[in-house]
Design a protein that fits this description.
Layout: E1 3-9, H1 25-29, H2 37-53, E2 57-61, H3 69-74, H4 84-91, E3 102-105, E4 115-119, H5 126-129, H6 132-142, E5 148-151, E6 166-169, E7 178-183, H7 196-205, E8 213-217, H8 220-225, E9 234-237, E10 240-244, H9 251-261, E11 266-270, H10 277-283, E12 289-292, E13 298-303, H11 304-307, H12 310-321, E14 326-332, H13 335-338, E15 348-353, H14 366-379, H15 392-408
Parallel strand pairs: 1-2, 4-5, 7-8, 10-11, 13-14
Antiparallel strand pairs: 1-15, 3-4, 6-7, 9-10, 12-13
Helix pairs in contact: 2-14, 14-15
N~2~-(3-carboxypropanoyl)-L-arginine is lined by residues 17-21, 24, 27, 92, 94, 97, 99-100, 125, 128, 164, 228-229, 231-232, 340-342, 346.
Length: 415
């Protein structure tokens, strides 16, 4: 049976605040803070537990091998001698944001009946540009079954940031859907990370039906306001599109295109007069997991910051009290990730598949999450300050921590 499985990136032991992402306001404003990798990873594990308790299917991806010394070697430097900005780029635990791991087209959307995954090249940000080889290695193991086709990245310079700029509308996860690729145009103060040529290449690679594939421009207002990915201002699930008024460059045109391709769509739009773009970005209202609950209706798994933003919570409560499609508000605490601009939706990659076709080592259950939490509690550093990135002892510790996790999960082949 085709089911939506959310694969969360386990937050790695090198999680730190180096302010590496231009255009990501949280990353810039928390630069230089002391991070808490252990607490961060435990928050991520709690989110997975929470979603399993809702009756949802859950998987995970392993943290990548960081700091990435071989990448520094390609730049003719090393962990010891690298300039601080390059060293920080080698240390980033950014693969935790699995929504940027790949773009996924479920089998019913593809001409060949396979579920296609294209690993994201992430070329816009140096610290993320060296994620794809490690991510691809995992995707090839997790999705080795012939039900899947796993593809390498779109070539540079066409920036691709994966599922964070991709939405799918459908009547049920297992039926054919309309795929919406959202791209930006560069030129402003902050970069547009998703290039239309990358999106189009992926649609061709995934053998999508052109009549059920849309390419929609993200608004420059949103990008320049700090919505560096579309999933900071919009999220879709089944027939519902939940979006901020400022998400798309040509709002009316975008809504008309979407309605023409998927007439049953229910567009739930939050007007800027109710929730301003800065409030939407600060609270990460839209960086939520809009999920179909097994007992019917949709729930919104959203960051606790949304509850703390009065305009946002007022709007949400009114929506739930009315007859809106979101029936339950489900706050989760992922503050450590949020401080780097990654909310609940950033931390997961949605894959619609038959769980029996996925390598079971990547599937979660409460007992396995207990095992992961034990490894994290025993090995993840409690805190990392910016100066610690120069410590060779810390390099050894974080390498050991990751190896312990891979061994505990039978994934030592990824070491
Ligand atoms: O790419 N932050 C990530 C956050 C990604 C959020 N993902 C989605 N919206 N789907 C980014 O900007 C900050 C790292 C640092 O500054 O050290 C960072 O990479």
């Amino acid at each position: 049976m085709l089911t939506e499985i959310n694969f969360d990136g386990i937050i790695g032991p090198t999680h730190n605040y180096a302010g590496l992402s231009r255009g990501n306001i949280a990353s810039a404003s928390n630069a230089g803070d002391v991070s808490q990798p252990r607490a961060a990873a435990l928050q991520g594990i709690e989110k997975m537990r929470h979603n399993i308790a809702l009756g949802l299917r859950q998987g995970f991806f392993m943290p990548l091998d960081r700091p990435d010394a071989p990448w520094l070697e390609t730049l003719c430097t090393s962990l010891d001698t690298a300039e601080p900005h390059l060293r920080a780029q080698a240390w980033s635990a950014s693969s935790m944001w699995a929504a940027n791991a790949a773009t996924v087209s479920p089998a019913p959307d593809s001409g060949d009946g396979k579920c296609h995954l294209t690993v994201a090249n992430l070329v816009t940000m140096p610290h993320r540009s060296h994620e794809w080889p490690g991510t691809l290695a995992q995707l090839r193991i997790a999705f080795a079954d012939p039900a899947f086709a796993v593809h390498g990245p779109v070539p540079a310079p066409f920036g691709d940031e994966g599922a964070a700029n991709h939405m799918r509308l459908c009547s049920g996860h297992g039926s054919a859907g309309v795929e919406i690729f959202v791209y930006g145009l560069s030129g402003g103060r902050f970069p547009a990370r998703q290039h239309i040529d990358a999106s189009k290449a992926i649609a061709r690679k995934h053998k999508l039906d052109p009549s059920r594939t849309l390419f929609i421009r993200q608004s420059d207002t949103a990008i320049q306001g700090g919505a560096f990915h579309n999933d900071v201002v919009a999220v879709a699930n089944e027939h519902v599109l939940f979006t901020h008024e400022t998400a798309f460059e040509d709002r009316e045109g975008a809504h008309a295109q979407i309605r023409a391709a998927f007439p049953d769509v229910e567009i739930v739009e939050v007007p800027a007069s109710a929730v301003s773009l800065p409030e939407a970005i600060k609270s990460y209202l839209f960086n939520a997991q809009l999920v179909s609950l097994p007992d019917g209706g949709m729930g919104l798994v959203l960051p606790t910051e949304a509850r703390e933003t009065p305009a946002v919570w007022t709007w949400l409560e009114a929506h739930v009290a009315g007859n809106g499609p979101i029936r339950r508000l489900l706050p989760v605490d992922v503050r450590q990730s949020m401080a780097n601009g990654g909310g609940p939706a950033c931390l997961r990659l949605r894959v619609v598949a038959d769980p029996s076709t996925v390598d079971p080592r990547f599937l979660a259950d409460p007992a396995k999450l207990d095992r992961i939490a034990d490894v994290v509690a025993a090995h993840w550093p409690e805190a990392i300050a910016p100066g610690d990135l120069a410590s060779t002892a810390l390099v050894r510790d974080v390498q050991r921590a990751r190896s312990a996790l891979l061994e505990a999960l039978g994934l030592a082949e990824l070491i």
